[in-house]
């Protein structure tokens, strides 16, 4: 039996781009489908060309395909139920902020800029027929140790990327989340001042 | 005399979406053209539907049209040469992170998530024919004081948004930057591990 999935499309007061309206973060990925190398490269190139403060580009990535030891290492360093579903993603990417320059100067906008780069990556991947789910629930210290990251490199999140799977493949609790309506605060609540 | 502007298009090893390839951050905005209300709304809606950690949506905005006292207040709180060019932007937006919940719990990914929301906003605006330039060089305390922001609200950056102007309208130093080739680190440098 197929579960009817309600529309995942964003409800907006005025139209926004298709890729943004249709992007959402699933937990069910098809565990058998590979992602083509050119699709992974396009996603990384999109991240590469994101804007950043003084063009410092304070982002680095660990990219691991399913079936590699590195993929398994990333899964081991996810928290709680993220481990349950993320291991099926074709690609896991550790999103790393460069928090200071070589001479020790803090890069104030490192995390903000990293967020922009991962946003570019996600939208490019979605445009190319994939789905993306970012996780904040990671063991940053464990990832740093496992991959021997130097002090200025800070794992901030992990991106799961792959082909959308069926909600039925998830345990019940996650299945219900997968098909629940998408929600956001009303726009008015986000605008402190409009002038 | 018109200065020939070299292509601002991103050079990538594999094609990426048009809007990302063509997006760049100018400093010359047309000081006479208004931005339609629907275009501003679309950009804000795009931000609204960005992903965030546990869907906390830790972003708020102060939106000010050119000619309002609020626009002037934002310009006053820009650093250095940002004041020279940003006052011509049709809209200035203060991008604010919500750094903790009402009960004081820190929102670890507030700045990262804000970066994603502003990325969505920028790409939507660019798709709608505008250009966007984000500034980290702001007086955050000055903005907080001027707009009476509570403690958990942190101004992180300001977005200038409007219709692209001619490079000739800028002072020489900025004009040279405006037409310089766009650059990024090679992709290899960004990938700590590929597996």
Automatic annotation (TrEMBL), chains A, B:
Family recorded in the similarity comment: Belongs to the nitroreductase family.
Gene Ontology MF terms in the entry: oxidoreductase activity
The keyword Ribosomal protein is annotated on this UniProt entry: no
Alphabetized Gene3D superfamilies for the sequence: NADH Oxidase
Keywords: Oxidoreductase
Domain Nitroreductase: 21-66
Organism the protein comes from: Homoserinimonas hongtaonis
InterPro entries linked to this entry: Nitroreductase, Nitroreductase-like
Signal sequence annotation: none
Pfam families: Nitroreductase (PF00881)
Protein name: Nitroreductase
């Amino acid at each position: 039996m197929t579960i009817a999935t309600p529309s995942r499309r964003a409800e907006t007061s005025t139209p926004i781009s298709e890729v943004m309206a249709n992007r959402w973060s699933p937990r069910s990925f098809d565990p058998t489908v590979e992602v083509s190398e050119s699709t992974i490269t396009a996603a990384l190139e999109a991240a590469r060309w994101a804007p950043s403060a003084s063009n410092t580009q304070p982002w680095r990535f660990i990219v691991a395909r399913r079936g590699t030891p590195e993929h398994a290492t990333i899964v081991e360093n996810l928290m709680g139920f993220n481990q349950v579903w993320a291991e099926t993603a074709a690609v896991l990417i550790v999103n790393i902020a460069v928090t200071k320059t070589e001479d020790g100067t803090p890069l104030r906008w490192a995390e903000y800029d990293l967020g922009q780069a991962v946003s570019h990556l996600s939208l490019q991947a979605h445009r190319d027929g994939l789905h993306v789910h970012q996780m904040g629930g990671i063991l940053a210290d464990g990832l740093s140790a496992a991959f021997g990251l130097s002090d200025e490199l800070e794992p901030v999140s992990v991106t799961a990327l792959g082909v959308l799977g069926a909600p039925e493949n998830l345990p019940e609790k996650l299945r219900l989340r997968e098909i629940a309506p998408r929600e956001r605060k009303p726009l008015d609540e986000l605008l402190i001042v409009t002038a």
